[in-house]
From TrEMBL:
Pfam families, sorted: Hyccin
InterPro entries assigned to the protein according to its UniProt record, in alphabetical order: Hyccin
Annotated region described as Disordered, given as residue ranges: 375-396
Any GO BP annotation: protein localization to plasma membrane
Keywords attached to this entry: Cell membrane, Cytoplasm, Membrane
Keyword Transmembrane helix: no
Primary location class: membrane
Protein name per Swiss-Prot or TrEMBL: Hyccin
Native species: Orchesella cincta (Springtail)
Compositionally biased tracts (Basic and acidic residues): 385-396
Domain of life (superkingdom): Eukaryota
Length: 396
């Protein structure tokens, strides 16, 4: 199964790579980046390289070609295997096996990202909150117009720029003091590309970190006489870069496995007595215990039926409703014809449903009148004294 998937992938890349500027390259990149079975198969070939010796060399050469490709998705596909490549490299170094091709691949990844404009930043700036600045304490800065020289002077005092040290690889082969720093830099590049990688690769990367940290240690309660595999030598800086990967995995698909891996990394840091790694592991572990839920962004949406001031402004009254103010309408005597006309007007009024317009046209000291045609009119109400006389006359 693994042989067939990897062999088909290698054959397809050989056909596509003959014309690197064709549309087939983009389609090939989309297909391989979303293929979970291919990722697991290639990872299996890398970590079980003794078993898949005929395919191992071709896989390393293909990954090197993919990382040098101008297609970004192909570089992301190759970047998924950086944890597995580092694990295989350190394991082969300690077992005294030749790994020239793998070493060349790791070195090529580092040099390509160092010279690329799209690579990770080489430094960052940290503000000094002890001194006033235009950001957090503008009152301590002069209120006059600030020139460029003034900004440079303020930045020199209040901002500290930290530049990441550059690893210089002058020899053809990687010497022993440069191996762990090279792995640390390559893993730092992997963390920079981590948000763009498929989330399906997160569990496999955590398992690789677990093997790097726990390999060579006896498990609790194990009484097996079989000699454990060789312990992989790590550094505190490399372990801290792994903590970044684990912290990212907590909120991207594998929280349980990430917390378990973090415990194993904390035990390795305590075993090696790495103060900086212990500090980072404990800080991340305490943060995860204090925050029960992952960081989420809540977006509140407004419904279409919400009523605002703009709703009333857009709903204007129809122009065909006349506003008639008549003083004679209140003095008309009621009759039989008016009663029938009034009932007909009420029926027409109910059918037209003009209640909102009635409420809108009502004014203070006014009376609503329904005409024979069913229209709604408002007339001014007479004073209270005249209304009382009219009522008394009607009663008599």
């Amino acid at each position: 199964m693994t042989d067939g998937i990897v062999s088909e992938w290698l054959a397809e890349w050989n056909n596509v790579s003959q014309d690197p500027h064709s549309e087939k390259v983009s389609d090939f990149a989309d297909s391989v980046l979303a293929n979970e079975d291919l990722f697991q198969a290639v990872t299996h070939v890398l970590e079980e390289n003794e078993r898949f010796r005929p395919l191992y060399g071709d896989v390393i050469a293909t990954l090197f070609a993919l990382y040098r490709s101008p297609e970004k998705k192909l570089r992301l596909f190759a970047a998924q295997f950086i944890p597995s490549l580092i694990y295989v490299y350190l394991h082969q170094i300690h077992t005294q096996k030749k790994c020239i091709a793998l070493e060349t691949l790791l070195r090529g990844i580092y040099e390509f990202e160092s010279s690329s404009e799209d690579g990770p930043p080489s430094g960052f700036r940290i503000p000094n909150v002890n001194l006033p600045s235009i950001y957090h304490d503008p009152g301590g800065v002069s209120t006059s117009w600030v020139s460029d020289s003034d900004l440079d002077r303020l930045n020199a005092r209040t901002v500290k720029e930290i530049t990441r040290p550059t690893l210089v690889l002058s020899d053809e082969r990687i010497r022993a003091p440069q191996r762990l720093p090279l792995c640390t830099e390559v893993w730092w590049i992997f963390n920079y590309r981590l948000p763009d990688l498929p989330k399906a690769s997160v569990p496999m990367q955590l398992k690789t970190i677990s093997k790097l940290v726990t390999q060579g240690f006896h498990q609790a309660g194990s009484q097996s006489r079989i000699q454990p595999p060789i312990r992989v030598v790590l550094s505190s800086k490399l372990l801290i870069e792994m903590v970044h990967t684990v912290f990212f995995s907590v909120y991207n698909g594998a929280p349980t496995l990430a917390e378990q891996t973090l415990e194993e990394m904390s035990m390795r840091a305590e075993h090696q007595l790495w103060a900086d790694a212990m500090l980072v592991c404990n800080a991340v572990r305490d943060y995860l215990k204090s925050s029960e839920l992952p960081v989420q962004v809540e977006v509140s949406r407004f419904k279409k039926s919400i009523i605002t001031n703009a709703s009333f402004r857009t709903k204007k009254l129809p122009d065909d409703i006349p506003i008639v103010e008549s003083d004679n309408a209140t003095h008309e005597e009621p009759g039989s014809g008016e009663t029938s006309a009034l009932s007909a007007g009420l029926a027409s009024f109910k059918s037209k449903s003009k209640i909102p317009h009635i409420l809108a046209k009502m004014k203070r000291n006014s009376v609503v009148v329904i005409t024979e045609e069913g229209d709604v009119e408002t007339i001014a109400s007479p004073p209270s004294s005249e209304r009382k006389k009219s009522i008394d006359a009607t009663a008599v």
